[in-house]
Structures are given as C-alpha cells and as structure tokens.
Design goal:
Layout (H helix, E strand, L loop, with lengths): L1 E4 L14 H9 L3 E5 L10 H6 L3 E3 L2 H5 L4 E3 L17 E4 L7 H10 L2 E4 L14 H18 L21 E5 L3 H13 L2 E6 L2 H11 L3 E5 L2 H8 L4 E4 L14 H7 L4 E4 L20 E4 L2 E4 L9 H22 L8 H6 E4 L2 E2 L2 H7 L6 H6 L2
Parallel strand pairs: 1-2, 1-4, 2-3, 4-5, 5-6, 7-8, 7-10, 8-9, 10-11, 11-13
Antiparallel strand pairs: 6-14, 12-13, 14-15
Helix pairs in contact: 5-6
Length: 372
Amino acid sequence: MRVGTVRETKNEEYRVGLTPAGVNALSGVGHEVLVEAGAGVGSGFSDDQYQAAGASLRERAREVTEDVDLLVKVKELQPAEFDLMRTGLLLFAYLHLAPDVAQTRALLDARVHSIAYELVRRDDGSMPLLIPMSQVAGRMAAEVAAQYLKKPGPGRGRLIGGIAGSSPARAVVIGSGNVGTAATRVLVALGARVVVTSTDLQRLAALESQFRDRIATRVTSPAMLAEELAGADILIGGVLVPGSMAPKLVTREMVRSMGAGAVIVDVCIDQGGIAETSRETSHSNPTYVEEGVVHYCVPNMPGAVPRTSTEALTSATLPYVMKLANHGVDVLRIDSALAAGATTLGGRLVNEAVASAQGKEFTLLEEALKAL
C-alpha cells in the first residue's frame, strides 16, 4: 500500500503523522511511503532523515494525497485541506467531528473513509491513541495555569504554591481521566490546593490512594461546582464523552464567581468546551478575558511540544497504521479497536455520537462496509 503524511496546517501545529522510524517500519515490510517536503521539520525531523528511512519526498501536499491509499495526519482537516480529499482515500487522524459540521460534510462529500484517533477503543474500554496526548495536555494545562495566574497580564498575580505566610492557589480539576490525573500530578507538585471532581467514584478512589491527603475529591454536581469554583484561582476542564460534545458543566455564573484574574484551561475545547464562556483560541492568540477570568482554550495544546508529542503519538499509532497499511479498510471487519474509531465510510456517517451531535443520519458500520 502507498502510505503518506503531509505538513500540518493548523495554527502553530508542529507535530507530524509519521516519524522517520515509522517510515522505516512501513517501508521495511514493502509499503511505499510518501512524505511532503518539510513535514517533519517542526518536530525536529529533516527531509534527509525521511529519505534515509525509505520515504519518497513530494513538494506539495496534493502530490501526496493524490497518490496514496492511506493518509496519516495529526490534526483534523482545515478548510484549506478539504479539497485534498478524494473518494476512497483512507484518513487516519484526530478528527473531533462532533462540533465540526464543515469537516464532517467535507469527508462525506468526498466519500473518504475516515478513522479518528480519539475514538479508537480497545475491548477493555481504554483509548490508546488518546492517552499519550491527554497526558501531555494535562501536564501542560497545569503549567499554563501557573503561567497565566502571574503578572504581567490579567492574571491575579498569585504564586501557585504560595510561601510561608501566603496561601497556595486553589485549583479545581473537572475530570478524573488521563487529562485530570496528569494535571493533578503537576498541580500537586507545584504546591496548589487541588480538588478533583468526577462522576467516576472508582477513579476518584484511585486518585485519593495515589495522592493521599494532598488532594480532595468530590462527585461532580451543579451545586458542588458552584461551591468549589467560587473564589477558585484555577479551573482545568478534562471531561471526555467519546465522539460527543463536551458537557457544559460550568455556567457563566460559576465563571464569574471565580473572580477577576482567575484562570480557566479548557482542555475539552476540541469537543466544544466545558464552560459556557469557552471558545476556541490558538497558540498564536491563546487567551481572552471574559467575566474577568482568563480563558486558555487552545485545541492542539500538545503541538507546543512537538518533539515529545510526535514521538509519543507515533509510538501509539504505528501498530494501527501498520494494520491499515496491511489490510486497508477491510481491517474494520476484523479489528474492533479500529472499528470503534470509524467515522465516515464511503459517504456514510458511521459514528452514532457524531450523528446525534449534528442531527445527521447514522449508518451501522456493518451496513456501510457491505455497501463498499
């Protein structure tokens, strides 16, 4: 099979879908790999490294997408990339379709077979391609919160860990998964007072066991959030509903109650955001102030540490890329993890959560495969 990757075009996105090591693994078993020139530069990988690994370079993205069977990306399609799609192309990337009607329509109109990293799920419920980037984003969220809590800027000028005679910052982490756990670990290390909220009692118990008396845990509810967020210095949102929009758990009133100079880092923004006041920002313009509170809502946070993120991501994706390269779309008949990640297939929307979020017709994957 012909496999390809291209330079990412999302704002300040420096990750790349395949490393030279990944290219070497694919070419070593007979697959041809095409790489857009310069695709890996932001992650520290030169064109010479890709060629040495067995890749053929192409000057433009279209020269890659026109000739490959499988396109491996990092981030969702940007509007300028819509016309690179074509019938029968197999696309493997983070897609986050639920809030993105335009991208969904582009994939359906082009009859692309798309599989979303963030929806690939093992039989035990774990999401192997979401875990590494969630860990990166969670750790970054705590660092970002500490940065924007300071001055100069609109932050309230608080040192996150405090010192003798001055109390530490109060942080609320909503979500007890990979993002929440990673954020909590860094916040605790920095000395913040941390409350973790979740509806998953088993995960909360695990966090209490891990961090002991260094955190408090509470079951998420509107009344509890209103209580904890009043006067809080930091809110980190890390709730995931696979394939669906993020729940709006944090009302405008709750945001206002945090007070001027508090900081919200909404890691859920890929799926619409956890707060009523959240709207997408970018690495080049990362924050805005609403209700007096600093909001950081960058959807591709791990893109700021591309070398770490690319190495971690491609280590996780490569086994699945290899399966797709070996079997093509037929792998969806035999691999339940990849089947769970299928979003569009031959012009049909095959993910029920995305269809529900957008009010579109849903087709069972088995029926869509029969129609190919």
